[in-house]
Amino acid sequence: MNARIFRIRTPEGVVFSQVLAGPIVRSAAWLVDVTVVLILTVMLSWCLLLIQFVNADLAAALQIVLYFAISISYGMATEWAWKGQTLGKKLLRLRVMDAEGLKLHFHQIVIRNLLRFADVLPLAYAVGGLACTISPRYQRLGDLAANTIVVRLPQIAEPEFEKLAPPAFNSLRQHPHLAARLRQRVETTEAALAVNALLRRDDFDSSARVTLYQELADFFREKVAFPPEVTEGLSDEQYVRNVVDVLYRPRTEE
Amino acid sequence: MIIDLPRFLAAERPYWQELKTLLDRLETETQPKLSVAEVERFHFLYERTAAALARIAAHADPNTHRFLESLVARAYGEIHETRGTASRFSLRQWAFRTFPETFRHHFRAFLAALVVTFVGAAFGSTILMFDPEMKPLILPFSHLHGDPAERVKKEESQKPEHLEEGKSRFSAYLMTHNTRVAILALALGMTFGTGTLILLFYNGVILGAVAYDYVRAGQTEFLLAWLLPHGSIEIPAILIAGQAGLVLAGALIGRATREPLRQRLRQAGPDVVTLIAGVALLLVWAGLVEAFLSQYHAPVIPYPAKILFGLVELALLALYLGKSGRSPA
I want to staple B46 with a disulfide (CB 3.0 to 4.6 A). Which of A104, A115, A208, B75 is the partner? Predict the structure, then answer.
């Protein structure tokens, strides 16, 4: 199943996107949360054992009220405290957010959690699951009423700019007119592909890396043919690095 | 246009870091306060980062792109939010102004819930009037299936000690059960109000059938003394929950308004939450009264005292919901 994307166009004309969380991953997060609520309830029962010796009726009453309070308020409290995340959502890297990208308000959290009572009907989240599957934004009834969506949070590490450091010597620059022709012929998307291949170098295993750089180098060689003495002895990876350097740094830095 | 990416990244990175730090602060602090200069700087950083995102959309690696998207998304939420953020929550303000005002603001929805419950009650009593054999089918509680006169006789002959055992547990059960029903009445508003109306109607049917059964058996005083102390709060609370469900349904249907669905739901949200929170508090009180007072019958507590208590509660509730928070004319 292709991931559905939620896009917002800001008044400044900039578009940013978030990947929507589908019913399966959301169910997994919900299972984690149910387990947490059960664990909390069991722990609570142990604590109430002491009271039970003094007043069994009071202990039973507390157990009923506290279980109810925990199961109702767990989602609300955690989503409010952790900006749209429960423990299950944290583990599965999901977050509840306003459907228009705005700040999540407390009443939205309350509504989406209270409307679980309709989503769970007739059993096992049948209504919520169906609504989630049909909805283009994977919204269950609670999300529709609260105007919220659940998005996936990608692993966001800070970009490793060092991987784009220019090579010490770029032989392709010995032929400025060919370098200029290369810049002219290469599309932005093709250039971005080469940059991504370099930045994600360590993500590939060695054989895939060799094949990828070979294909990229062949592709750029076809765009502009540099004289053999310039490219002689250059590995495919180094060739791609030199091409990226030429494309993205039109002027050599002094 | 292919930009000089390394130079661009090196130049912009400090601004992104600064924005990230500011966003972390805004999201961590409960009541963040920025000076005018900081707000201006925040806006500048947001616009600069948004511009950077637009410039490198086709160039940067997915990691950089996601990093910038995440920053812009977070800053967008902070900057473009126009709904008022609640200032420090005051329970007194909420209890004596917000809740009763919200109730009055949606009074027509409350009336609708009341009418449907009355219709249900009329239906329930009519069914029993024509076919008393239907009682076990209509009433879900087995202790109501027998003869009311026999039950009254049994209750009045019992010593109060028999109730002492499970009083707290019973009270807790009532509170949680009634709150569940109330939340369901609200949640079923998402069925365009149909589910809410059915639930209210069904509650009315039970109420009407029980009332008719006891009145027919000549046990009106017992009935009033049994139901009024907690029912004078519990029944209005369920009606208010139905009111909240109908407010939600009204936003969903959007009759006589041109506002889009999302806008309507956005506007109804705070009122729905206020109503259901009020319902929860009322039900806690009703649960306590039901367990600690309603189950005691004459001669332990005289019926007129219980009836009077219930009527006073009802009058105070009406006064509270009708008058509290009104500005003096």
Answer: B75
pTM of the model: 0.80
Q: pLDDT value at position B58? A: 63
B27: left (phi over 0), alpha (psi -120 to 50) or beta: alpha
Inter-chain contact A145–B54, Cβ cutoff 8 Å?
A: no
* Contact yes or no for B61 and A83 at CB 8 A: no
- Count of helices and strands (H, E) across chain A: 12, 4
pLDDT in tens, B26-71: 877 767 788 888 888 999 999 899 888 888 766 656 677 788 888 8
Taking 80 as the threshold, does the pLDDT of residue A243 lie above it? Answer: yes
Contact assignment for B171 to A118 by CB distance below 8 Å: no
Which residue matches tokens 């750029």? A220
Nearest by Cα to B238 from B191, B183, B315, B187: B183
Q: H helices within chain B, ranges in order? A: 5-28, 36-56, 62-80, 91-93, 99-105, 107-130, 135-138, 148-157, 161-164, 167-187, 194-216, 220-253, 261-289, 303-323
- For B233-252, the pLDDT digits (tens) are 999 999 999 999 999 999 99
| ipTM of predicted assembly, 2 dp | 0.85
Q: Does B102 touch chain A (CB under 8 A)?
A: no
pLDDT for res A215: 92
Which of A159-168, B39-48, B54-63, B285-294 shows the lowest mean pLDDT across its residues?
A159-168
d(CA B180, CA B246): 17
Q: Hey, is the C-beta of A10 within 8 angstroms of any chain B C-beta?
A: yes
Q: Could you write out the DSSP letters of every residue in B176-211?
A: HHHHHHHHHHHHGGGGTTHHHHHHHHHHHHHHHHHH
pLDDT tens per residue, range B219-234: 899 899 989 999 999 9
Residue A5 in contact with partner chain B when CB distance is under 8 A: no
Give percent of chain A above pLDDT 90: 36
Residues 256-315 of chain B whose Cβ lies under 8 A from any Cβ of chain A:
262, 265-266, 269-270, 272-273, 276
- Residues 6 or more apart whose Cβ sits within 8 Å of residue B175: A65, A68, B283, B284, B286, B287, B288
In 3D space, the residue among B247, B310, B257 whose CA is nearest the CA of residue B278 turns out to be: B247
pLDDT value of position A172: 85
Phi then psi for residue A97, to 5 deg, are -140, 160
Average pLDDT, chain B: 86
Indicate yes or no: CB of B276 within 8 angstroms of CB of A165. no
Q: Tokens for A39?
A: 């664990």
User: What is d(CA B223, CA B307) in angstroms, rounded to the nearest whole number?
Assistant: 9
Using an 8 Å CB-CB cutoff, list chain B residues near A156: 63, 66-67, 70
Q: How far is B177 from chain A (nearest CA, A)?
A: 9
Q: Which amino acid is at A233?
A: G
DSSP state letter for A151: E
Task: Judge: A117–B66 Cβ closer than 8 Å, yes or no.
Answer: no
Name every chain B residue with its beta carbon within 8 A of the beta carbon of A72. Answer: 183
3-class DSSP state of A3 = coil
Answer for the pair B188, B245: CB distance below 8 angstroms, yes or no. Answer: yes
